[in-house]
Amino acid sequence: MKVFWRGIFSSLTRFRASIVSNYLFVLPALIMFLTFNVYPFYKVFQMSFRDWNGIDPGGGTFIWLNNFKEALFYDSTWWESVRNAGTITLLALTLQNFLALVLAWIVDRGVRGAQFYRSVFFLPPILSGVVVGLVWNWIFRGEAGILNRCLTQIGLGGWTHAWFSDIRTALPALAVVHMWKGFGWAFIILLAGFQGIPRELYEAARVDGANEFSVFWRITVPLMVPVFTLVGVLTILGSMQLYDLVVVTTLGGPSGHTEVPMFTILRELTDNPRFGYASCLGVVFGFILVFVSIVQLQVAKRTKAE
Amino acid sequence: MIQVEKKMTFERITLSLRRILSSIACHGILATVAFTCLFPLVWMFSSALKTQRSVLTDMSLIPSHPQFVNFTKAWTEGNFGSYFLNSVIYTVGVVFGVLFIASLAAYAFARLQFPGKNLLYYMFLATIMIPVPGAVVAIYVLIMKLGLIDTRLGYILPQINGSFAVGLFILKPFFERIPIELEDAARIDGCGRMGIWWNVLIPLARPALAVVALFTAITVWNEFILAQLILQDQALMPLTKGLLTFWGGRLAQDHLMMAGATITVVPIIIAYVFLQKHIIAGATAGAVKG
Question: What's the ipTM?
Answer without folding.
Answer: 0.87
